[in-house]
Amino acid sequence: SLGPDVVDIRSFAKTGMFTYDPGFLATASCESKITFIDGDQGLLYYRGYPIEQLAEHSDYLETCYLLLNGELPTPQQKADFDYMVMRHNMLHDQIHNFFRGFRRDAHPMAVMVGVVGALSAFYHDSLDINDPHHRKVAAFRLIAKVPTIAAQAYRYNKGLPLSYPKAGLSYAENFLHMMFSTPVSEYKVNPVLAKALDRIFILHADHEQNASTSTVRLSGSSGANPFACIAAGIACLWGPSHGGANEAVLKMLDEIGSVENVPAFMEGVKNKTHKLMGFGHRVYKNMDPRAAIMKQTCDEVLAELGLHNDPKFKLAMELEKIALNDPYFIERKLYPNVDFYSGIVLSAIGIPVSMFTPIFALARTVGWISHWTEMIADPGMKIGRPRQLYTGAGRRDYVQLSERK
Ligand code: ACO
């Protein structure tokens, strides 16, 4: 018993006034007009447009405009939007001092959580969440600066001088330039690889109320500023069950080593010693539509680079073949998700494994800020405050320290 005057919240459950739903398996936390998913049919639409059409015909910044504003831009709107993002992609020079404060071997996601949160210490003209102009400028700043921050985190780790964005390059090209150009050698962008990276950005741009987006919404519901909220989203994304999965896939392929070791690894999966990373999804109980697009992109990139016989890729294809025919996976509706292939594509492009999740974070920034904006602009917004099912001790009296044994 919790004591005579305490109402046990479990009594509400009997009247239907209280739901207990660990992991939010059956609870919608909000209304949203941004992204639609049908997990049984494997459908994903941004603002009503199928992901397949956007991946084929759009580019990342156009997709950003669509997610933020609800409609595809006119040519003039697209030009203005691209210009605004490019205008904001530099970092305040003092922000460079932040990078130097971290250990060189820090994970880039750790650096990103800190530096993105610190943007609130610099851009005071985008902190008033009640001012639509402030909200808009915050969105531009985040979409523009997060790739710059991610690239600098990598360069600091490598001991390279910090780099600057370059005018005249696309969003994906600029990111590759900031990662890999040095004062003595300009990175030559291969258009097939830049297109593949842009497609990775599009596919990761939004995914309705996933863990990190829900984190951004919950943080924002208290009135916290947008930079702090996006830093919270980055922290959540880092976990291996979420955005950290693309990194975990490559680590898993390294651990398995070669095709001969696959059967023993699969036994371990079935005994629940480990998971098959890059497989399974909370919502998709059919093929993840992003995975199908990513697999095709993977083929294009490997063909461009002459890597089709790459042992890691062969190993991944063997795992996919076995899993798709194995009753354990079929019964549980476990299909490859987008991260099973995106890691292979990123690796082929030459991106180090530690940068996989930062790339997911920079692509998802637009989804996070679109959800944050939608929520803040809603006059009915309430602070998010879940309840709990208390299972602790009942009421008891304090015992003086001297009397405790
Ligand atoms: N490998 C092996 N078995 C799995 C896997 C997997 N990757 N995923 C789920 N299962 C099994 C579970 O052990 C469970 O089996 P049981 O019924 O015998 O107990 C069953 O499938 C259901 O699994 P849940 O954990 O209930 O599924 P949930 O929806 O909670 O988890 C998640 C989804 C977290 C994505 C899970 O599938 C997973 O950890 N996958 C690997 C990590 C990964 O790839 N994450 C990326 C997600 S996509 C993204 O963030 C872009």
UniProtKB/TrEMBL annotation:
Protein name (record): Citrate synthase
Pathway info: Carbohydrate metabolism; tricarboxylic acid cycle; isocitrate from oxaloacetate: step 1/2
Source taxon at top rank: Bacteria
Record family assignment: Belongs to the citrate synthase family.
PROSITE patterns: CITRATE_SYNTHASE (PS00480)
GO molecular-function terms, A-Z: citrate synthase activity
Catalytic activity entry: oxaloacetate + acetyl-CoA + H2O = citrate + CoA + H(+)
PANTHER family referenced in this protein's UniProt entry, alphabetically: CITRATE SYNTHASE (PTHR42871:SF1)
